[in-house]
């Protein structure tokens, strides 16, 4: 297989320094401790079950309606209005930050997440001992500014958390699961610090991913008239006479549409939102990867983009064939 495997550093005795860069405390996304991951998975998995995802739909539909209103209003101008779709997509789902109401990135959240992501991607390539001092490296503002953005994100996340906590409503969303979750080890409610840490990770993990995927879908489809036609035909057939201003499709029928789902999946293959390699650590005793023995405790990763563009990783299906979405 022609996939490039990058073998990173051995986990050094200073690995604990990496914890400094974890916002608040380690979360499901970034913990390297399998026991901690299993514990967190126990109380978080129900929040992502098919049934509960269905129950979030009314909140999401309300945001989609606002997004559609924004897009329609811009499109009804003189036809020359430029829509920054990325900005409108950001945070259209999940806990609303008010972008769609105010029609602007009023918390500077998008810039903050971008700056933070870039600096965290870069800092992982520096020796562990240098990492904590990079916020003082004023010769290159990339470092102090990006690291400042990580603290800003923590503040934005904490504020959003306190607002949601003080709402005291029974709205069912990811946070309501965390409020009601019991610590699998002790049976007690989760600590506020743990809830805040997990909810901040949702802001990054759940919004940037969806917004860039939606932006990429629109970008790719807008360049392919044949695909536009196939999509329009599929939607006309699935929802005859229902597509009008203010109408939002329900998830269940949309989930069954083969062309639409193939377009979204192919977009995520071509332009994965996490395109660099996600890191893993080789197990005790080491591991043979792509024919090379890698000693235990070594960081390894394969860039997602490379896997997605390697034909040996996929089975090509003809339309109608088993395994084909179309
Ligand atoms: C197009 C949208 C999305 C993409 C492309 C995406 C991508 C990913 C990827 C690649 C991982 C694996 C990370 C790793 O193994 O290191 C992951 C994990 C995760 N994602 Fe997403 N994600 C998306 C949407 C969301 C949303 C909306 C949420 C909800 C807040 C979410 C929550 C999570 C969580 C909690 C994990 C950690 C799971 C675990 O470690 O067991 N994701 N996502």
From TrEMBL:
<dbReference type="InterPro" id="IPR001128">
    <property type="entry name" value="Cyt_P450"/>
</dbReference>
<keyword id="KW-0472">Membrane</keyword>
<dbReference type="GO" id="GO:0016705">
    <property type="term" value="F:oxidoreductase activity, acting on paired donors, with incorporation or reduction of molecular oxygen"/>
</dbReference>
<dbReference type="InterPro" id="IPR050121">
    <property type="entry name" value="Cytochrome_P450_monoxygenase"/>
</dbReference>
<keyword id="KW-0560">Oxidoreductase</keyword>
<comment type="similarity">
    <text>Belongs to the cytochrome P450 family.</text>
</comment>
<keyword id="KW-0479">Metal-binding</keyword>
<dbReference type="GO" id="GO:0020037">
    <property type="term" value="F:heme binding"/>
</dbReference>
<dbReference type="InterPro" id="IPR002401">
    <property type="entry name" value="Cyt_P450_E_grp-I"/>
</dbReference>
<keyword id="KW-0503">Monooxygenase</keyword>
<dbReference type="Pfam" id="PF00067">
    <property type="entry name" value="p450"/>
</dbReference>
<protein>
    <submittedName>
        <fullName>Benzoate 4-monooxygenase</fullName>
    </submittedName>
</protein>
<keyword id="KW-1133">Transmembrane helix</keyword>
<dbReference type="GO" id="GO:0004497">
    <property type="term" value="F:monooxygenase activity"/>
</dbReference>
<keyword id="KW-0812">Transmembrane</keyword>
<dbReference type="GO" id="GO:0043386">
    <property type="term" value="P:mycotoxin biosynthetic process"/>
</dbReference>
<keyword id="KW-0349">Heme</keyword>
<feature type="transmembrane region" description="Helical">
    <location>
        <begin position="12"/>
        <end position="31"/>
    </location>
</feature>
<dbReference type="GO" id="GO:0005506">
    <property type="term" value="F:iron ion binding"/>
</dbReference>
<dbReference type="InterPro" id="IPR036396">
    <property type="entry name" value="Cyt_P450_sf"/>
</dbReference>
<keyword id="KW-0408">Iron</keyword>
């Amino acid at each position: 297989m022609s996939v490039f495997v990058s073998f990173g550093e051995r986990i050094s005795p200073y690995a604990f320094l990496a914890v400094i860069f974890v916002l608040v405390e380690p979360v499901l996304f970034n913990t390297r401790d399998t026991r901690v991951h299993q514990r967190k998975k126990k109380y978080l998995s129900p929040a992502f079950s098919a049934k509960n995802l269905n129950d979030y739909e009314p909140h999401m539909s309300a945001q989609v309606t606002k997004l559609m209103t924004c897009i329609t209003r811009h499109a009804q101008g003189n036809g020359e209005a430029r829509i920054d779709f990325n900005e409108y997509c950001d945070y259209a789902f999940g806990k609303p930050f008010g972008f769609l109401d105010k029609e602007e990135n009023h918390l500077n959240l998008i810039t903050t997440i971008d700056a933070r992501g870039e600096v965290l991607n870069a800092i992982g390539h520096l020796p562990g001992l240098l990492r904590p001092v990079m916020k003082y490296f004023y010769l290159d503002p990339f470092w102090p500014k990006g690291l400042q953005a990580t603290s800003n994100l923590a503040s934005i996340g904490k504020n959003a958390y306190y607002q949601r906590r003080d709402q005291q409503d029974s709205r069912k969303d990811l946070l309501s699961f965390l409020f009601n979750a019991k610590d699998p080890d002790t049976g007690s409610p989760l600590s506020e610090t743990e809830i805040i840490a997990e909810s901040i990770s949702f802001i990054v993990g759940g919004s940037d991913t969806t917004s860039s995927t939606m932006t990429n879908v629109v970008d790719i489809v807008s360049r392919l008239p044949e695909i536009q036609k196939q999509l329009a035909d599929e939607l006309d057939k699935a929802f005859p006479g229902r597509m009008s201003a203010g109408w939002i499709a329900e998830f269940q029928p949309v989930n069954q549409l083969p062309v639409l789902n193939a377009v979204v999946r192919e977009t995520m293959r071509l332009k994965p939102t996490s395109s660099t390699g996600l890191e893993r650590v080789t197990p005790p005793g080491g591991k043979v990867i792509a024919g090379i023995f890698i000693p235990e405790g070594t960081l390894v990763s394969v860039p997602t983009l490379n896997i997605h563009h390697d034909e040996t990783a996929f089975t090509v299906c003809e339309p109608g064939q088993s395994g084909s979405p179309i």
